[in-house]
Amino acid sequence: MGVKRQARRRSGGAELSFDSLIDVFMNVLGVLMITAVVLALATPGQQSRPQPQAPSPPRSTPAEPEPDVPAVRLSLPQVQNASTRPLYLLITGDGIRPFSTDDLETVDRYFVSRDLGSSLELQPIPGRVMGEAELRSWLRQHDSGLRHVTAAITPEGIRYYRQVRTIAAEEGFRSGWLNHQGDSVILGSSGRTGSLVQ
After folding, report:
1. Are residues 86 and 141 in the same domain?
2. What does each C-alpha distance from 6 to 13, 109, 124 come to in angstroms?
3. Is residue 4 part of a domain?
4. Into how many domains does the chain fold?
5. Residue 34 in contact with residue 26, Cβ under 8 Å?
6. Are residues 172 and 84 in the same domain?
7. What is the dihedral of CA 104, 110, 111, 112, to 10 degrees?
8. Residue 14, C-beta contacts closer than 8 angstroms, at least 6 positions apart
9. pTM for this entry
């Protein structure tokens, strides 16, 4: 009789172990299901993040691709709102020509000027352009705390802008650019967005 009880205990012990194993399995499965539900409920909250804004409308740029420019580059409106006054450069297919309303001596070296009454037309002199050393020397005649460089770039002159930007930065000047059509420049008070350059 004692042997039968021991046999029952052994077989009962095996049944308890199997039941325990099923309980453990069900508990793990329950925890996994609860975790899945929590994750599923948390996922819609991620969709409330700010969506990327639609790209802004294209700006007016030169015909060729815009040069690789650093974050400090200033487009015309930013330059215009600066507390500094512009030093203008005309960049065409044959090179760089500086001009300034308060430096007509330099203007006469690179342009033929014609008085239009309230404005002045500047026609570039063919082949007369400014090299790197001359550009640096011209910039050093001005105070970078009071002036900034604005380049009027024709589509053919875009390749020179990287050089201008680099030199201006090395000399301590902020620089910006505007798209310019044609070779001649008209200086006057009615330029685009009040820039004096038409």
Report:
1. yes
2. 10, 118, 115
3. yes
4. 2
5. no
6. yes
7. 100
8. none
9. 0.55
Span 28-61, pLDDT tens digits: 888 888 888 877 776 655 554 555 565 555 555 4
H or E element, residue 181: none
37 and 118 in one domain?
A: no
Model confidence over 87-117: pLDDT tens digits? Answer: 889 999 899 999 877 777 888 899 898 888 8
Query: Is residue 67 situated within a structural domain?
Result: no
Range of the domain at 16: 1-44
Separation in Å, CA 22 to CA 19, 27, 31, 34, 172: 5, 9, 14, 18, 77
Q: Is residue 15 part of a domain?
A: yes
Query: What pLDDT is stored for residue 9 in this prediction?
Result: 53
Based on the fold, state whether residues 107 and 161 are members of the same structural domain. Answer: yes
The two structure tokens encoding residue 130: 């400014």
| pLDDT recorded at residue 17 | 60
Contact at 8 Å (CB) between 167 and 132?
yes
